[in-house]
Specification:
Shape: globular
Number of strands: 6
Strand order of the largest sheet: 2-1-3-4
Radius of gyration: 16 Å
Order of helices and strands: EHEEHHEHEE
Number of helices: 4
Amino acid sequence: MNIGVLSFQGGVSEHLKQIKQLGANGIEVKTEADLNNIDAIILPGGESTTMGKLLNITGMMEPLRDKIKAGLPTWGTCAGMILLAKEIENDDRRHIALMDITVKRNAFGSQIDSFTTKKVIKEV
């Protein structure tokens, strides 16, 4: 079985490693042609705005949406779930928008702004 991982940004290598450990073939999906070589796809965690922009820039949004509509088994983790959601509570943007779920993006902005901490790191 060939399981694709959308490979623009995010947790790509972690998903590919796990797919291999499960005995399947992990395929990086970056082009429309890559969609023809997979039996399922994972949309990984990462930054959904970046992934959405790259899907549009590369012309991959519609081919991917069409494949999913046609029955391609699809799993979205974190940002991947946001890409798939029909409703996003705190964002007017929609991406693939095929899954009947409502999600809420983190309220902190980009991932780099998701948390802050102050810590003294001792020199060794």
